[in-house]
Write a structure and sequence with these properties.
- By secondary structure, the chain is of the alpha/beta class.
- It has a domain at 7-243: P-loop containing nucleotide triphosphate hydrolases (Rossmann fold, 3-Layer(aba) Sandwich).
- The chain has 15 helices and 7 strands.
- A 5-stranded parallel beta sheet has the order 2-3-1-4-5, sandwiched between helices.
Length: 344
């Protein structure tokens, strides 16, 4: 079965993308499996398919990075839940003539098994390749889910990330998504709307997707794409509620806001991807931190600067190791810091 109008979901991690995918997967026409981590990789879109096919064994065993902020090395995860294994996937790649042919074959099998007609995929860093995906599937629909930056950073820190990495993850993923917000195939949905005004939000989304709304889409039921992440108050297949909204108020401190104030997307990535936003304040309508007042002593500011610079250098070193050992190529670092930056 071939689908010309697939759905691609992306955004920052911890924005409720799994909840959204779970809701859509309950639709009788839409099938969305677990995170595949394929459409976030430039090797699928920016290299000849023969090269992708010849390196597929390496991608499956070692991985390849997104070359964006969250490098996310695993590639084509949890194949068994899509009805594939490594050998059958390699055979599919061998008989495919191009990337579209390969993807159609992969998801065609998934749709047939699940008796669905529209496939979708959710990996947060899909936002890095939204434009590439639309070139491959011009009739596709892009769903960009967003959430208050403060709650996202709070959630990502609970998952073990430091303030710098978590803040840059929200900034980079969000900026990469909103660059397409003038495209008719792009739809932005907020986590807050999804959990506070669930029914109306899902009705409007279904209208965008040109499918009928069914009330069971928002009802509690077990899901095959359910995950357990310790920062969530609820499982995505559980009862939808808004108790995670505003959780940052009891978690974030002055250093977290200092970091959010001073991080930037690197000039090279802004230029290459044509980004309209390079800082959290430039996305203030989504981040909601524009009214936060920063009052630091000179000593505390100096301490915060040192901490931030050390986190930045640690991240740069890690990225160079991945470039050399995994990607075997050098490319620009996606983030930078601006010590003179301010929220106002």
């Amino acid at each position: 079965m071939q689908c010309d109008n697939p759905i691609l979901i992306g955004g920052s991690g911890s924005t409720g993308s799994t909840l959204l995918a779970t809701i859509l997967n309950r639709h009788p026409e839409i099938g969305i499996g677990p995170e595949l981590s394929l459409f976030n990789k430039p090797v699928l879109f920016n290299t000849p398919f023969t090269e992708f096919r010849d390196n597929l064994v390496h991608y499956l065993s070692v991985g390849t990075s997104t070359r964006g902020w969250h490098l996310y090395l695993p590639t084509m995860k949890r194949l068994e839940q899509y009805g594939w294994d490594n050998n059958s996937l390699l055979y599919l790649a061998k008989k495919s003539t191009n990337a579209r042919d390969f993807i159609d074959g992969f998801f065609g099998h998934y749709l047939n098994v699940n008796n669905k007609i529209i496939w979708g995929e959710k990996t947060p860093s899909n936002s890095y390749q939204f434009d590439s995906f639309l070139r491959l599937y011009p009739k596709a629909r892009i769903i960009h889910i967003v959430r208050d930056a403060r709650d996202v950073v709070c959630s990502l820190k609970n998952r073990g990330m430091n303030s710098y990495y978590a803040s840059m993850l929200w900034l980079y993923n969000t900026a990469m998504g909103v660059r397409l917000n003038n495209n008719e195939s792009y739809y932005q949905i907020s986590y807050e709307d999804l959990v506070i005004d669930t029914e109306n939000t899902v009705i409007n989304l279904c209208e965008f997707l040109n499918v009928n709304y069914f009330s069971n889409m928002i009802n509690h039921q077990q899901s095959s794409i359910d995950n357990s992440i310790k920062s969530w108050n609820n499982k995505p297949s559980g009862i939808i509620n808004s108790k995670s909204v505003g959780k940052y108020k009891n978690v974030l401190g002055d250093f977290d806001y200092f970091v959010m104030n001073h991080i930037r997307i690197s000039n090279s990535h802004v230029s290459y991807y044509g980004l309209r936003n390079n800082s959290i304040i430039s996305l203030s309508n989504l981040s909601n931190i524009d009214n936060y007042t920063l009052n630091y002593s000179k000593v505390l500011r100096s301490y915060f600067i040192i901490r931030l610079v050390l986190l930045f250098m640690k991240d740069v070193i890690r990225r160079f190791f991945i470039m050399l050992l995994i990607d075997r190529d050098l490319y620009p670092i996606p983030g930078r810091i601006d010590i003179k930056g301010s929220l106002k």
